[in-house]
Specification:
Blueprint lengths: L21 H10 L14 E2 L11 H8 L9 H14 L3 E5 L2 H8 L9 E4 L4 H9 L3 E4 L20 H11 L3 E7 L12 H13 L4 E4 L3 H11 L8 H10 L3 E5 L10 E5 L3 H14 L10 H13 L3 H20 L12 E5 H4 L9 H13 L1 E2 L1 E3 L1 H4 L15 E5 L7 H16 L7 E5 L10 E4 L1
Parallel strand pairs: 1-10, 3-4, 3-5, 5-6, 6-7
Antiparallel strand pairs: 2-8, 7-8, 9-12, 11-12, 13-14
Helix pairs in contact: 1-14, 2-11, 3-11, 8-9, 12-16, 14-16
Length: 457
């Protein structure tokens, strides 16, 4: 039987949620053109669409908000945030921005452009989009074991270093950036090992290629290293984080994940003064003055506290344990998932559960729609629908994974909520042969899954 880790906190405030009838849910998703992003939050019972910006802040963070310094320049909250960042990450320069994709918008065009390529273990959707918006092309090089959901391997988020070297040889001086996503979201929230970070860093340095961490889930990745990698069991989480970041030249971070914030982002530059000056100039143009970066002083204060809370071992034990519990409940019900459990959610293998739906009819999305109709649970697809089309031919690309992601917001839901999710999927499994795919009837040119309209087939 699955074992639940008790919460290392007490609930101090509650928010009312309601469960619509099945008939109402069926009508709502039809009105939303079968796109879960178009649903109103008031029509959701359990919202597992994303773990980004949906976290519950602590009493310490709420108290810190009252002390936020809203000065346009030279904010005290900005200075206190810098002190924490220097202590945790040990970089020379830090720049707050309003969220992770803003960090990419500011940084990537300085390193990429027409004719350039960027390589990652796996690019997530918005990161891939910002590579392409900068004029470059995104290439993935995740390890082969990540592509086998039933294979239980400790670090399925790793970069395939052999493929990385082959891509560097193939494109030679056209590689503008190597990105390591920790944890690897598109591969199922799977962690990256310290050994792999070290190896990729060595390759990047040998070839003179800048190395960037996509560090939205840095503390979850550090916890997995402590739990699974030899020689790190007795190291503190802060020591592990410092070593992780020492191998990169820079990082982008959505603070809406592991920094336990509802809004915010961060850019870190290790020691490249010239690059930082360019980042600073673009930040002023696109985000605001350097000491607020598009955020209120209260957000900077909440980020400072959240970064510290994210390294609390008791919190991370619960956080990782909660995700593990849901995976084990689904396995007990015979629901195929990416194994082992990742850091921020459970990734149901929709291709395995719905083998009769081809990739171009989006099995991961079909399961997500069915889950809303069944139980009022909102999730999202991580597969071919998210991947999109070939930018040159316009043909639908086939993703290496067809997942339905159950992203769990931090410190929001209880064991009973997760049991409800597992029971709903078990009910869907009983009638899985009747579930049909979807077709797109309208889509925007970039990041289509946020706005596309679909019809059931």
């Amino acid at each position: 039987m699955a074992k639940y880790i008790p919460e290392p906190f007490r609930i101090k405030a509650v928010e009312r949620i309601r469960l619509l009838s099945r008939e109402e849910r069926t009508e709502r998703i039809k009105e939303a053109h079968y796109n879960l992003f178009n649903l109103k939050s008031e029509d959701i019972y359990i919202d597992l669409l994303t773990d980004s910006g949906t976290n519950a802040m602590s009493s310490e963070q709420w108290a810190g908000i009252m002390n936020g310094d809203e000065a346009y320049a030279g904010s005290k909250s900005f200075q206190s945030l810098l002190e924490v960042c220097h202590d945790i990450f040990r970089y020379r320069h830090f720049q707050p921005v309003h969220q992770g994709r803003a960090a990419e918008k500011v940084l990537f065009p300085l390193l990429l452009g027409e004719g350039k390529y960027a390589i990652a273990n796996t690019f997530f959707d918005t990161t891939r989009a910002h590579v392409e918006l900068a004029g470059a092309k995104a290439l993935d090089a995740v390890v082969p074991e990540a592509k086998e959901p039933n294979l239980d391997a400790p670090f399925k988020g790793n970069m395939d270093t052999e493929k990385l070297l082959c891509l560097i040889e193939e494109y030679r001086r056209k590689i503008g950036l190597i990105v390591m996503t920790v944890t690897n979201n598109s591969a199922g929230g799977q962690p990256v090992s310290m050994a792999n970070l070290r190896a990729v860093s060595k390759i990047a340095k040998e070839h003179g290629i800048p190395f960037c961490l996509d560090a939205a889930r840095f503390s979850e990745n550090a916890y997995f290293i402590k739990e699974r990698e030899a020689d790190y069991e007795n190291k503190s989480l802060k020591e592990i984080v410092r070593e992780m970041f020492s191998y990169a030249d820079m990082f982008t971070m959505s603070a809406k994940k592991d920094a336990l914030l509802n809004i915010g982002g961060l850019i870190g530059i290790k020691d490249d003064e010239e690059l930082y000056r360019k980042v600073a100039t673009r930040t002023i143009s696109y985000e605001g003055f350097l000491s607020y970066g598009g955020l209120a002083g209260r957000d900077l204060e909440a980020m400072r506290i959240g970064l510290l809370e994210a390294l609390d071992p008791a919190y991370l034990r619960f956080r990782i344990g909660q995700v593990r519990y849901l995976l084990e409940r689904l396995e007990e019900a015979g629901i195929p998932c990416q194994k082992p459990s990742g850091g921020h959610g459970v990734f149901v293998d929709a291709k395995g559960l719905l083998p009769h739906i081809p990739y171009h009819q989006f099995p991961g999305h079909a399961l997500a729609v069915e889950l809303y109709i069944e139980a009022g649970i909102r999730s999202c697809e991580i597969g071919s629908f998210l991947l999109g089309r070939d930018p040159e031919t316009g043909e639908q690309l086939e993703a290496e994974f067809e997942f339905t992601r159950l992203a769990i917001p931090r410190r929001v839901y209880t064991q009973t909520h997760l049991d409800y999710v597992a029971d709903a999927l078990a009910e869907i499994k009983k009638r899985r042969e009747t579930i049909k795919g979807y077709e797109i009837v309208w889509e925007p040119p970039v990041l289509r899954h946020f706005q596309a309209k679909l019809n059931a087939l």
